[in-house]
Amino acid sequence: MTARILIIEDEALVAMELRFVLEDLGYEVVGTAADARSARNMVRESEVDLALVDIHLSDGPTGVELGRELGQEQGVTVLFMTANPGMVRNGVAGTIGVLSKPTDERAVQTAVDYALRRRSGQPVDYAPPGLQLFA
Predict the structure, then answer these.
(1) Which pTM was predicted?
(2) In Å, how far from its chain's centre is CA 34?
């Protein structure tokens, strides 16, 4: 079964590019959300394995709290993707880590693969380059 991924990103071009990359890699993108409320609705309506969450969304800097909520309360694996990694440098409970933007297709691929292997309990030896893990 292919992983179901939710993209939470308010920049339409970035979200579209991420969607194309993930679909080309064989993942199912369940949707894109530009704000926290839309993201919460999508998680309620769809089964989501992994959420790629930007910190600054169209409703403000709501991504950190949203990531914590999805990870701790909804059982979704969460990776932050942001140009502001310093905002989560101390980690966020219930989330795996942060991938700095801008990024490339290879970095997205290796970070998503890593997160999904951790989710399924498979052994992971080390984090891929560009992914800052939270303790």
Answers:
(1) 0.95
(2) 13
